[in-house]
Amino acid sequence: MHFFKKEVKDIFVSNDSGVRDNNLPSSLKRKNVYSPIENAPKGGRGLGLKLLQSLRFQRPSKESLKMAMEGKHDPKEEEAVDQLREMLFLDGKLPTKFNDYHTLLRFLRMRNFDIEAAKDAFLKFIKWREDFKTDTISKDFKFEEKEEVKKCYPHGFHGVDRYGRPLYIERIGMVDLNKLLQITTLERFIKYHVSEQEKTSSIRYPSCSIHSKKHIASTTSIFDVGGVGMANFSKPARYLFTEIQKIDSSYYPETLNQLFIINAGSGFKILWKALRAFLEPRTLAKIHVLGHSFVHELREIIDPSNLPTFLGGNCVCSEYGGCLHSDKGPWNDPDTLALLQVISSADETYDNEKESDFAPKNDLLENTKIQALEEALEETKKKIELLEIALESTKVILKDASGRIKDLRS
Question: Are residue 242 and residue 147 in the same domain, yes or no?
Fold first, then answer.
């Protein structure tokens, strides 16, 4: 059953001031894909008001809370989400953890708003998580070889694009697969990839949303393929590529904003013809294969401060041993993480209380979530006040110690 066909739109990128920016490279303007999943209907206020209220420990209204956590919804998309939610609930197949607007919307967009197909994809997603033990992977799986792996497979998150999305970079042309397989196994690398996807969903996207004051739910990626050709597409490489692509496409749909493939030479272009066969049209529409003149295109989408020097930016992250070792981004900001913890605690309280009596639009449950968030915010305020008192006491002690040191020296 198709609920509706979403009209295809050109991609637009918002700058930091929130104004729509049409300054996309001409090569991107020619491609038509679904508008980015973060885009809200005109008139949406996004996260700004609510988050500022939270940081000042004011009591938010019910409506501002909804706008903060969800953003403004498209009415047609919301109706489709409600239908999918009802179908899953009636079948007893809707875990509380994934009963949220944006998760269900991703599966609807994945299947062009065919609700039956979206339901089937969602159920496969839940089954895969059970089999892969994804819910506990952050606690159960430790990738101790990560730093050694990065030496022969340079990759990592590094800052955000101009809209506020996480920026992910791989230097595929520098991958030494033989050395990689001496350090780890393909199975462990795939599990590491899933753990990073989980971190992105649960920490990076929410942190970027708080930092940019709008809903963030996708990643901008750059793959440097300089020197890559058919010789690089060995059997282990094919296995790794197809497994990761299958996981990302099936279980983390609509999380790719755009992928820029740079330094594409003649060897890669031959390989690209083979790789395209593994990718779905909705993914291909977001990929832009560039040659060696890519700096201008990247700078239009990403501020130079978030681009490493090897990509035409001005960042080196020398204190971390290089940009791809830094994991630089809002997800490492202590204040952002503290607020995220408050929101997560409120969500957990709310989810536990609604497990036994689910109702998609029950005002009582929404009020419970608001109350839980308010209580968590008040608790955080008390902790901050105690820290401020301790800080003042420490200042007095340090001042006294400084005076004694001066006396001793004299």
Answer: yes
